[in-house]
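User: Fold this, then the next.

Assistant: Folding the first:
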Amino acid sequence: MRRVVVVGAGPAGRAAAAATAAHGVEVVLVDSAPKLGGQYDRQDTRESGDRFALPSGVEYLPDSVVWAVEPAPGGHRVHVRTGPADSPERAGRALETRALVLATGAYDRSLPFPGWDLPGVYTAGAAQALAKSQGIAVGDRVIVAGTGPFLLPVATVLCSVGARVVAILEANDPVTGWMKRPGGAVAGWGKFGELARYSVLLGHHHVPMVRRSAVIAANGTDRLEAVIASRLDHDWNPVAHTERRFEVDAVAIGFGFTPQLELAVAARCDIEGGFVAVNAAQATSVPGVFAAGEITGIGGAELATHEGTIAGTAAAKLLGARVRVPFRAMRHVRSGRRFAAALQSAYPVRPGWKGWLRDDTLVCRCEEVPYGELRRAVGGLDIGGVRSLKLATRAGLGLCQGRVCGRNVAELAGLADAADGFSRRPVAAPVRLGELAEDTPVESER
């Protein structure tokens, strides 16, 4: 039996599975969500059925996590647990494959500010997920703030579930940014129709967008009661005397995305610029491992889909299938990456955010590490990397394992190995000691 294992059922993973199956190769598609879609196409879990269809030859494992990837003869062994994390019925499988496609996606990046640990402060992705999957608004009066086009669909879906979106605060001036990369803007011309639709919907709900502005503090006792916003200069330093108070009960924060690299790092793939390095066939530096979607660069669902098609086709070819070269997908990937580069140029995270912090601002919420403690440790100790930073400050050692704080803490400490250091975990997802001790049968390729 020839088998490709695909991890992640967002646009990239679904496309990879479909492309592989189209060439007669069996696929196991593993995803942590209960339904297909990933973050971009997240489905309402209250509704029965699934709006996405998978071709024959694809075994779909929802509610499943890959907690480890290790070398095996001729390929890799992928360890999977299926079922809710707190269920005693959760079952384990160990799948051996000569072709592994990683499409694990990305998660929101939040920047710390005084009061960001108050109940009522959400990531933009969490606010969107609650609205799309359960029809729940995170608050009655909400501010959406950060940078990037993702703020628009988040604000739109919040309006659709009854929230009053007071404003969208965009920290950059995207028009100026796009003008610097006109070729990239032209490459993503089709996206502007989507932008226009969001603009019309938000205009209908009277949601203003305020550019060069950000939430720099949150106020409240037991929960969020108000946020303080400020105008920003080019480097995101707050402009004096421009502070404004918004009475809200929720704020959704999003400053772009951080790729989910744990499995790629475990497989020893090369990481360049914080993303998995791939060639034209979406092959990583490790033979038999392919990557597609946001872990190779943030470029949106369309780019991720075409990368997944290429990765799935290349994986099928590796296992001996006769394939048709996906020239159309390759053309779209080339233009999509130009658009992604322009997107990064238009919505950068600038260094002035560090000036929003006070000594008592928590930079690691899980371990409750304040900025002052981190600053003193970096100034007084010989911290040469992420590991020594964790041991000296506890930052990144909590429940999220640095997924929320790691990138920010590394930047505050002036470290360059954040992507590798905070993603280097032999156990990539929570497992019980009893599960580790299980003698899980290995399903070898035949």
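Now the next one, as you asked:
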Amino acid sequence: MADAYLIHAEPLGAAIRELVRGFGSEQREVELVTDNLIQANLTGHDSHGIGMLPRYSEAWAEGGLKANAHIKTLMDGGALLRVDGQAGFGQVVGHEAMTLAIERAKKFGSCIMALGNSHHLCRIGAWAEMAVAEGFVSIHFVNVISRPIVAPFGGRDARFGTNPFTVGIPVAGRDPILLDFATSVIAQGKARVAHNKREKLPPGRIIDNEGRDSDDPAYAVVDPLGAILAFGEHKGYGMAVACELLGGALSAGLVGGPATGERRVLNGMLTIVLDPKAIADAASFERETRAFLDWVTASPPRAGFDKVRLAGEPEREWRAKRLAEGIPVDANTWNELLEAAVRLKVDPAKISRLAGVKS
């Protein structure tokens, strides 16, 4: 068996659609979930791509993920919204919630939306992309309700999730700024990918179950569990707390705590969507934005770098490369997908055949 497979987006998408149908999903849900996961892989974020489906299938089997669920509006104040995801696929819930927030921003110039009880929202940058495509700024604070995986600064065990923070900023005539990162030094999914690929982590990423520095990603994946560290020491830790309180306590009415053993991954998200034309002079915003970005990226590259990049640029480069060459899927992840197919009563041989993978 190969150590890894290189699969082009179209056949991989066909295989994943077949797998997602096993949840009992309606066709619209199948398309949204599949497209979102494949896009994560295309942009180089394998941690948030198709490798999440085995975890989703376990959550679904336990009842923690609901197929064909949609957002429910709990509070509607016009430009101020609170919605409940009803434990539905984050790919569907996130899309519906952002569509609503963007509609309100078009009407009022801005919208603050609190989303709670969504199953895994996947790559938060996808929701910022929806906003910048309409010319809007968007800001996202997200918490994670699952097994704690990140240690607080100065602590030696895990107390909260990877709690992402994202900002999307449109740039007239150019690609947008898309800043999207976990407040941990790496996403938990990246540790899973490294574990599946039998790779070590660089120093300063993870601690073992005794709180000692380690390079073994297994401490983020299997027992005995350790913890991932926050980025920037106290800075990432502080941002993680802010995301927990704003995305969790405020938006979802639910924050993280001790592990329960459940496989579901719930997210709360506080989203701010702004029409820059409603708050600033459009011409000056566009002019000053371009001038600053030109100034920053004109910095001569130092040793080991080919140029200065902006947030969102690496993802676009990865997407072009993987559309042309294919998406790499390690053998362990592929086997986990086939096991998920069995769990969902989908023929694993058909999944491999659709993807063009030979056992």
